[in-house]
Design brief:
Radius of gyration: 17 Å
CATH class: Alpha Beta
CATH architecture: Alpha-Beta Barrel
Bound molecules: 2-phosphoglycolic acid
Strand content: 15-25%
Number of strands: 8
Order of helices and strands: EHEHEHEHHEHHHEHEHEH
Number of domains: 1
Helix content: 40-55%
CATH topology: TIM Barrel
């Protein structure tokens, strides 16, 4: 009932010429995909990538967005700037933004509201650190992060939001949550959405992220609550990313 969505998160990788080569290699490999396919790239790559993906089934995403429409925010990009560059999706609240750049649940919420208002689809990242999981806080924490991020949106708006459950201990570490752990926590996130917004929760797509790759994607995607993946390392090689996108083949 929910269409799966596989998104690459390139992070701070790929110059424009490298981005062009990667996306051109990717296009033929993912053209039969049954899921939505998104590449979230550095802003300097938007021009070459949006041109290369014209007329294909690949969509362009950004890795962050500011909440203000314009103004004195050196180094930031507004939702309208992204839109005009052909961006349709935007990652918000990635754990690296939270860890290294002071992102908080409150700013994640502000960015989410700005993205939705501009017609961008946010991919909101939530997830626990290892010590939080060990202390038994995972469910409370991901529920809280999700509900704060969504505060102020209507159920109709929430329907189109994507959530990425990314356990921080699994990002870039080669450690993946087990299929069951990921499924269970994503189920918790869905119930948190249901508790506040009702049955629209069944329409929200919730991805798993954290060392997802060609080897483990099938098992994860077979879980009933998991609607896709946010892929870091494995999105930087066309062949690897295409294998995740084609998880059903
Ligand atoms: P990873 O990154 O796949 O390299 O673990 C995922 C992410 O940070 O979105």
């Amino acid at each position: 009932m929910r269409k799966p969505i596989i998104a690459g998160n390139w992070k701070m990788n790929k110059t424009p010429s490298e981005a062009k080569a990667l996306v051109e290699a990717l296009i033929p490999l993912v053209k039969e995909a049954v899921c939505d396919v998104v590449v979230c790239t550095p802003a300097v790559d938007f021009a070459v990538v949006s041109k290369a993906i014209e007329g294909t089934n690949i969509k362009l995403g950004a890795e962050n967005v500011h909440w203000a429409a314009s103004g004195a925010y050196t180094g930031e990009l507004s939702a309208d700037m992204l839109k005009e560059c052909g961006v349709e999706y935007v990652i918000i609240g990635h754990s690296e933004r939270r860890q290294y750049f002071g992102e908080t649940d409150a700013t994640v919420n502000q960015r989410t509201l700005a993205a939705v208002k501009a017609g961008l689809t946010p991919i909101i990242c939530v997830g626990e650190k290892r010590e939080q999981r060990e202390a038994g806080y995972t469910n409370a924490l991901v529920s809280y992060q999700t509900l704060i991020a969504l505060a102020g949106l209507t159920p109709e708006q929430i329907e189109n939001v994507v959530i990425a459950y990314e356990p921080v201990w699994a990002i870039g570490t080669g450690l993946t949550a087990t299929d069951e752990q990921a499924n269970e926590t994503i189920g918790v996130i869905r119930e948190a959405i249901r508790s506040t917004y009702g049955d629209v929760a069944d329409k929200v797509r919730i991805q798993y992220g954290g060392s997802m790759n060609p080897k483990n994607c099938k098992g994860l995607m077979a879980q009933p609550e998991i609607d896709g993946g946010l892929i870091g390392g494995a999105s930087l090689k066309a062949e690897d990313f295409s294998k995740v996108v084609n998880f059903d083949k």
